[in-house]
Amino acid sequence: MRRHAAGVHRLAASMVGPGAADDVVQEVFISLHRSLKTFRGEAKFSTWLHRVTLNACYGALKARTTVPLSQEPEPRAPHSPVHRSEQAQVRERLAAALNQLPRDQREAIALRELSGLDYAEIAQITGAELGTVKSRIARARAALRAWLTNAGVTP
Fold first, then answer.
1. What is the per-residue pLDDT across 4-47, written as a single tens digit (0 to 9) for each?
2. Where are the domains of the chain?
3. 10 with 115: CB under 8 angstroms?
4. Are 17 and 67 in contact (CB under 8 A)?
5. Given 3.40.50.620, 3.30.70.100, 2.60.120.380, 1.10.1740.10, which CATH number is that of 1-68?
6. Apex CA 136: angle with CA 130 and CA 137, to 5°?
7. Geometric angle at alpha carbon 35, from 31 and 41, rounded to 5°
């Protein structure tokens, strides 16, 4: 649990928002504990963990009607209030942009950029072909870039 909790939380926060991510993480590890003896080892443990996490995220999303914008805690580094405010606005806009993506693109980009998985692992988790995963990520990046540019966020 100590090894994987941070990654599970990052993925959950990207899918359901940081406010609900703690509940999803708890649900994931309870689910893993209950079903660990059924893990057949046909895939890597991390692949199974990500699939369980995504399923828990979808369950949490079904349980509510709207996905809130990200409101992650501010970093503890000593920055000026103006810089903190700008960072919070960028995070909020990024969360809003992620929420606009279709489910398959949001899932693929979260697994790639937040969990750091390679394309083959994402394909195995999602059950999509490798080329499909690549195109989903490319489309998600393009959509995020366009959405953020229109929202006034510059790289």
1. 888 888 888 888 887 888 888 888 898 888 888 887 777 788 88
2. 1-68, 79-155
3. yes
4. yes
5. 1.10.1740.10
6. 95
7. 120
pLDDT in tens, 44-95: 888 888 888 888 888 887 776 444 444 444 444 555 666 667 677 777 777 7
Asked whether 99 and 69 are in contact (CB, 8 A), the reply is yes
CB contact at 8 A, 63 and 20: no
Provide the token pair at 107: 């899932």
CATH code, residues 79-155 = 1.10.10.10
Kindly list the distances between the CA atom of residue 144 and the CA atoms of 22, 87, 109, 136, in Å, as whole numbers in the listed order: 25, 17, 10, 12
Neighbours of 8 (CB within 10 A): 24
